[in-house]
Sequence to fold (1152 residues):
Amino acid sequence: MKKGRRDPEAKGGEREEEEEQPEMKRCKTAKRRKNIKNENARKMEEEEEEAEVRNAKRKKKHAKREKGEREEREEDGGKRRVKEKAREGRRRTHTRVETSSEPETSEEDELEEESEESEVRPESLSPEELEMLKEAVYERKKLVQGLRGKPWPMKEKLVTLRESQEFVEKYEGALGKGKGRKIYAYKVMMSKKWMKFQRDFENFKTACIPWEMKIKEIESHFGSSVASYFIFLRWMYGINMILFCLTFGLVMVPEALMGRPYGTIPRKTVPRAEAASAMDFAVLWDFGGYAQYSVLFYGYYNNQRAIGWLKFRMPLSYFLVGVGTVAYSYMVVIRTMARNANESGVGDDNSFNFSWKMFTSWDYLIGNPETADNKFASITTSFKEAILEEQESCKDDNIHLTRFLRVLANFLVLCCLAGSGYLIYFVVRRSQKFALEGLETHTWWERNEVNMVMSLLGMFCPMLFDVISALENYHPRVALQWQLGRIFALFLGNLYTFIIALMDEINLKREEEKIIKFNITMWEASLYNATGSENSTALPVTFHPADVPRGPCWETMVGQEFVRLIISDTMTTYITLLIGDFLRAVLVRFLNYCWCWDLEAGFPSYSEFDVSGNVLGLIFNQGMIWMGAFYAPCLPALNVLRLHVSMYLQCWAVMCCNVPQERVFKASGSNNFYMAMLLVILFLSTLPAIYTIVTIPPSFDCGPFSGKKRMFDVIQETLESDFPAWFSKVFSYASNPGLVLPFILLMVLAIYYLQSTSKSYKEANVDLKKKLQTQNEENKRKNKLAALKAQTDLEEARAATQTAEQKNNNASLQHQHAEEEEDLGSSQRKNGRPPPSVRHQDGRPPATRAPAPRTLHPDTHRSLGYLPGGGFPQQREPRMHRVPSLQRH
Amino acid sequence: SSALMVSPAIALAFIPLLLTIIIRCRYYFVLFYRAVLVRIWKDCVTGLSREERAYQYVLTHATPGDPDSILDAFDVWCSKVEFISNIGPKKGKILDRLLMEQSPLTVLELGAHCGYSTVRIARSLPLGARLYSLEMDARNAAIAEKIIRLAGFDDDTVELIVNPSDEVIPLLRSDYGLERLDFVFMDHWKKCYLPDLQMLEGSGLLRKGSMIVADNVLFPGAPKFLRYIRKSGLYEWKVHRATLEYSKGIRDGMAELVYQGIK
Fold:
């Protein structure tokens, strides 16, 4: 009964004790400091490999120690019983309890841990003690929960947190009784195990995310903007993986396994004329020969409605996969955009420019000193720039020059765009000429001119734009957006020139096809006549499929063009990487030993990672995939390969040959910008694909849709033959314009409604924000008034105590000295102690710390106590200054 | 032969790259023109060295005995007529400020060239201070001597030593009777920065608080020097970023080192 008695009592009386016994507190804090050290040591230990073993050991130790402490406590109790000196005993008990509730106790406790004494038995507690214990535990729990919001120094918070947790851990178990207690302990244990499992599982999950560690490392070296590119790359990889799975699993593999094998029909055979060179590397590299007549391209697929024993509907599957990939891409992009918009919905950068800069501009993911330096410098410059901007917004002296320069820059950029567009157009026309003359007569350079020129322009023009944009004198962020827009325009122009040229070529091929079709019918007729005249009863002569004349198959041509474009683009990217980054880095590094100026810090330097260019490259690459995937099912596979290699190559390149950017900016805001661009590109790239699918009739002798008037007729066909009659009837009703139009109207209305609601929500948000702000100001004003009132009180109190103070000057002086020795932790805890009054050393007039301000701002002392010994003069300073202002009021 | 011939369209695609390079490096081209081509041309035409031409200009355009006017004349000549890599007015201001703050009594200047920086330092020295100025090249030293005297500084304030720095520094204590150096200004061969600094450390002339200022640490640049001070831990240091003298677009820096001594 009496054994357990101390603990709740001790906890209950803790508060009053705090006020009474400063000295004891001090020694306690000393101990606590020691404990912090112990704690640190323990942490270091924890990080070592055999953590679990150690954990187990520590647990045992801990348990033993607890026993020892309890024994001691009992001893205390005994002493108390004997001596009956209430105060003395209580004090001792307090110290004990305090120390025992701490994570590690000093060595003396460890020495006494041999005893076999049993633990605290909660059955022995009286109900009211139990209540008090419960209350104390509850208090601690509450403290732990609210700790984050407390305006204390971090060290104190940590100490309190650890103490409270230990306390709760220890005494929570004592609350239940008998069986219930065991169940409770079991529950606690299980919940801990569960938490640990969850943590491990989280770790496991992070380990499972591909390239996560690589990206984290890059992030720590280069800041989040560079990492955002790699995250984007990974995301893109995921999408392409799914596209690849769709096309590979539903189109390529079924055709390869169940379709007619190679060489059975003309479209699946290399023509006789090409057969000799079909296996040459040069031909294969151009995706001709055997590569052209394989599952990689549209033309290989047969128009047989169902193939294999599964009755797999190949043409339907081909069409649906083509549509499905695009639909899936739309869905994913829009969903991601919506999620990003939700995340970044609340930020407004305009209203508190400097506050935002002050408190939010650090990139906490940086772990590299050089990058940190750069970030520091960039924050400084951004401050300078912001101040300059503020100043400039007041006075605009040379606005005409700036405007002129901006117009000039845009003019130059437009010239550049037009030039590059014309060059591509010219090249494409030339290549058409070459194609008419026959490609064999021309050199490799001439045959690959289009791709080369496009890649080179895509590489060099952005550099020129970058140089030109220096004229404009925009803010870096604005400049980046302009730059992105211009590169976007360039790429788009190039791509569309390419597509227009392709369309021309498609038309050419279709003309050719008409002629060939006519010739074939003539040929067949002549063949029939010939066989008929010779022997009318015999079977028609069977030709080898390689000898059968065939049409040009524009779809395969389109697919080939896109595949070549992707390949050349990839090659250019990698070669640029190797030359522009790696070779440059090697040269700079090793020539620097024998060069007349500093190559590393000076002119060529190492390259920076160009986030915007890389992101745009990725986006346009994806656009080409979307455009070409319908005609070349191998494109997603190629892209997956490319992205995979890119990931490793660029990770390596960025870590080994790039330096952190001079302007490290955070990328969180720009993510949706990239997504928006991706969406635009997705739309723009599906446009020509859909146009060709809808308007141009498929080739007559190649591909899964041959023989149909349009490609989408496959749906009609399936509906008619594979579904019951009523279904096609329903479908035809549903596709009736009378039904479709109202449906579209409804959708538009719904969109309008949702948009207007979101707008009103936004307005409400802004209003609330304003309200908050005004309330804040109101509070500030109130606080100010209260503080002023406190000042007057304080002045009076000071005047009153001044005389009294001078008397016990010497005593307090000594007291002061003793106090100065103390460390942080202790001074924070001395709230209840009578205030140290005077300090004459610095020659200031004596002043007291009257109780009035402390009750108003209980935290001032706390925070000032952080500076050992230095708190008082600092605190006195503003008061001295505030006096005249008070009189003025 | 036609297999190797690149088509003209591909060559045209390189135009943006060419333009970019030209625009990016325009300051370097200008510098090359002014510092090398013009110099060679004038050398051939006049038969005088560049420093002598500068001296003639200063002699005709500046007021004798007025350091400021001499410096101004130099600045005008270097920015308008030809190029000499003096410290220049902008970085010179930083140097002036450092000298004002430090107010050193013993100053060592490595590389006087034609006396611009010597005059600049000498005019901001406190009373009783002494400046030792080293110049390796005898012809330049002669001009520097004239310029210094023209600015009105006598032998007590400025002592010009015509010798390479690696020979003079070990002798400073013995031959010149120096106890300590308060301020060292380096503007000679960039490759000598590091060996000279190490020699200064070895000579024991640097005391706690001695300041060393090195010009042109980024362009033409002294990478080994920077690497050394970064690693050595003997100095508190920073690099004042500026542009190259008499040029707007080339970035350069001036390193300021404060010797902390071995702790």
